[in-house]
Amino acid sequence: MFKCKNYILKGFILLVSILFLGACRSADENSVRIGILNGPTVVSFIKMIADKPQFNGKNIEFVVKDEPQQIQALLLKNDLDFAVLPTVMAVNLYNKGLKFRMAACPVWGTLYILTNEKTQDTLNISNKDIYVFGQGGTADILLQKYIEDYSFENVGIDYSYNSNQDLAQALLSSKIHYAIISEPMASMLLSRNSNIRIVSKLHCEEYIFNKETDIFVQTAFVINDRFWKHNENTTKAICEKYAESCSFANDYPQRTINLLEKYGYVRPGSLSPSSIKRCNIKYFGAFGIEKELTEYLKLFYKFEPKSIGNKMPDSKFIYQQNS
């Protein structure tokens, strides 16, 4: 069994009025706004950021935020054409009425349990306090599953830190001893403190079809309905360009690091090619991974139905690209 400290819901309140207060972006504006998160998502987009492509005369404007809630706020104001955010959050927003579709999963499992404890037996997290940002979020639910799978006892899950950056800094300064951290931030912490090491990767063991099938559909690349309905060719071109950027990160990890350093997203020398590989970047169109997505969401429906809006999304959640 596990215990939860500070069990005060730090989730978000969705007011219907917010959906209508944000000014709608017109379909003929000269820029396409893509909201992305600092971390693995930036890694996946870095080649596209460097190339500065145009699509039918429209520039790409990347809006980079540190926390998913900041991307959520922009979606609520109808201020983004595309966005990448945790799949669980995307489904929750969709089930509450936001008008967008999931086009792809670009980033799969990137979450790791890190510790700065010097004891040898760090694999056993029984009687430990694990710090997580975001109660009811991806890291929280998968940690609960991990605890259940391995029968760890008396694990305290603490949500007292208000951002992933605060959580990472607390681990770095030894204010806390165990935390869930995503790549590439995990690698940056490993490079800055030799006492910090990886305990385990958080994963989804329920593979379907065969052992090579991954169901860790961690992130969702979503498209605003207003945009794709008026810009189908541009939507297709952007998806293809993003898929190429994801492939670049996988095929050329050192060149990816060079670009991340050039554009100031990481400190020089803080990442290695293995860090990029641990970001688990693989662009898969959502229409091709519906079964994997369903299995993944079932985990969250089991542990915390509210995290996905108390129901599974309908079939319209998946963007079906016209050939």
Describe the structure.
Helix 2 crosses helix 9 (about 230-250). With about 325 residues, the chain is an alpha/beta fold. It has helices at about 20, 40-50, 70-75, 85-95, 140-150, 165-170, 185-190, 225-230, 230-250, 255-260, 275-280, 290-305; strands spanning about 1-5, 30-35, 55, 60-65, 80-85, 100-105, 110-115, 130, 155-160, 180, 195-200, 220-225, 280-285. The protein has a 7-stranded mixed sheet, with helices on both faces. The protein has a 3-stranded parallel sheet with strand order 1-9-8, covered by helices on one side. The radius of gyration is 19 Å and the shape is globular. The model is unreliable at about 1-25 (pLDDT under 50). It has 2 domains: about 20-110 and about 215-310, Periplasmic binding protein-like II (D-Maltodextrin-Binding Protein, domain 2), CATH 3.40.190; about 110-200, D-Maltodextrin-Binding Protein, domain 2 (3-Layer(aba) Sandwich). The chain contains 12 helices and 13 strands.
